[in-house]
Amino acid sequence: MDNLATTWVGATAKQISRAVRRGDTTATQVVADHLEQIAISDPAIAAFRVVRAGEAIAEAEKVDDQEDLGNLPLAGVPVAVKENTPVAGLPTWHGSAAARSAVAEEDHEVVRRLRGAGAVVVGVTRMPEMGLWATTDGVEEPTRNPWALERTPGGSSGGSAAAVAAGLVPIAQGNDGLGSVRIPAACCGLVGLKPGRDVIPCDLGLDGWFGLTENGVLATTVADAALGFSVMAGRAPVKLVQPGRLRVGVSLRSPVAGVRPDQPNREAVATASKLLVGVGHDTVTADPPYSTAVGLAGLATWFACAYREADAAGLDVRSLQPRTRRHVALGKFVWRRGWVRQQQRDAWREKSIRFFADSGIDVLLTPALATAPPPADGHAGGSWRRNMQVNMAYAPYAAPWNIAGLPAIVVPVGLRPDGLPLAVQLVGPPDSEVLLLEIAGQLEVANPWPRHAFV
């Protein structure tokens, strides 16, 4: 922590907003502190595509000029926004210059809500090309994991996760189409919430990847995740309480055949299970009804997302990375043959909801990852086949719950023997976002985690 710029770097969003509202500090001071920390640390991490230094200070001054800060739950809180989410006055990069769209004339609705709550957007964070991959790197440089610079922070919201884990912002927006908030949260030791369908406005790209994509939040504490979720969902701040006795299903089964979690990830689930029993819940073995048909439908949908987004944006496919070109080509193939159907996704959603009812469980506990985060380098220029192998081998647990449209959260549970974070995933039925946050809060109290890896 020798490189900390000031005491406000590393503070939680709740601590910052409370201090600004009380007049103990100013939004301008808080934002200046974080911009200084970004200048110190981001050259090693490459979390940000663009830092809005001058604009952020000007916006912080406007927050300070408001007469009544009492109704601003994020007063003066620096936030980062993923680069596929329109921010007025900036291009929307989508992970590469080849996929970049024009300068946005207005903010995306979630950005508008963050700013309306008093938050200050200090910059937009990097993602892999078109958000397709679970590693965040481009042809220029990879984004690095603050816990181990040679490792990836995950993807596709890898820049947002790296920024929060390094203390460059207390919370960040991300979005999750097949795990893109939860995978980086697990890689970087953060709380990462993907809400269920239609809880937070999405409206990204053509149709949000057939409705699979949801905007979510990355934070170092459950309280901050709840605060960010409340603001983006347009709700009053969530008040978390102790949930009653729950029945928790526990599963190590991977959705991808032949992939098994390594020993540290199995131990993470065992640790979380014991902690949940310790706070009064019951645990039972309950494996979701994954099937080859669901897996193939998920793959075809992933491919088709790439093709349809590229086609709708009029992208020159030849300018894209080799791995992305192959993904787009496969997407064109499966889409034109009618292999991607809404009925498949609807059937899995219904089956997933029945799984909770039939098994009698309130929530499901799974690993967040199967292995350690892979190396940071070499993916953007690598082959499609190699990228697919890496993605599916280390991060198989997230995607089914996007297809089902169910809420899910990743929660840290400690560190691997190599010092990288460990995490678990909790999944719930529709409208269980607050319950998932409450259970995550119980895990946090019972087993606090290191909040930052300062660089």
TrEMBL record:
SUPFAM superfamilies: Amidase signature (AS) enzymes. GO terms for molecular function: catalytic activity. Pfam families: Amidase (PF01425). It comes from the Bacteria. Residues 30-437 form the Amidase domain. Belongs to the amidase family. This is Amidase AmiB2.
